[in-house]
Amino acid sequence: MRDPREASLIAVERRRARAAVKRAIQTCARTPLSVAREAWRDPDSPAAGLRITEFLGSISGIGLIKIPRILDVLEISPRKRLGALGARQTEALRVWLHERQTPDSNATQRGRLVVVAGPTAVGKGTVVSRIRERHPGVKFSVSATTRAPRPGEVDGEHYRFVSDDEFDRLVETRQMLEWAVVHGQHRYGTPRGPIVAALESGSSIILEIDIQGARQVKQAMPEAILVFLLPPSWDELVRRLQTRGTESPEEQTRRLETAKVEFDAQSEFDVTVINDDVDAAAEAVVDLMTDN
Ligand code: 5GP
User: Fold this and answer.
1) Angle, to 10 degrees, between the axis of helix 234-244 and the axis of helix 249-263?
2) Lower Cβ count inside 10 Å, N or C end of the chain?
3) Which residues does a 6 A CB cutoff place in the pocket of ligand 1?
């Protein structure tokens, strides 16, 4: 019999090792197939101890909605661990992972452009932050803006903070995929280069922009998937705007006026996602990035 304290230390250590494997998949440091192979080779490895649901959830582009569908197709119970699959399940997963890794050479593999828009204070920023945390491999467009950085905002990470002249130059030289004056104040735009580069290299990319911008993107790239994020109710939207405390009362009134108009744009979007649960909304967006 093992000392209970020693047993609990071993359990903590194993959990840490499994978390490191998941992170390696999320950050693309390791391919899912190489992790699965390790699990099948060594049943005592951290990879083997991963639940199949954790394993699949670590793969970029696979969220809570897709996992049950994939497990259904592969006929694997969600309770299974990666290292304890039956022979048929192992083979089915091996083939599935292999096909994901090596796309059909006849098909030109292009990434997807997913545009997340929605009325003010619906929680776009929160949903996008959750996607960043849970799926570090997902690419995001960094917009250019003429507004000043807020405390904690980093140039090139949150936005490219540019002068009015620089913004004019980007527009004139057709470097903007879209741009708009948002809330009647500052200009915001999506630099075209990084989007084209991501899509051509087969990566999907997310844009978090306003509704006018979403319309322009759809016109320029009809294959873009427009996602409209909705609050659970109008009252909840008002409450969120008032409690986040980043806008003055006048600014709040102005943003609510814009929101009323923005609500009417829903029908122009390909998908609506209700943001009543941040995790679920984030996964719904990530699920749109791939077919599986
Ligand atoms: P904030 O100033 O609070 O960061 O953003 C204000 C609004 O600008 C948000 O609704 C956001 O979606 C929108 N926005 C941010 N980047 C872009 C962009 O590149 N293009 C457009 N059209 N809107 C953007």
Assistant:
1) 150
2) N
3) 124, 143, 147, 178, 180, 182, 188-190, 208-210, 212-213
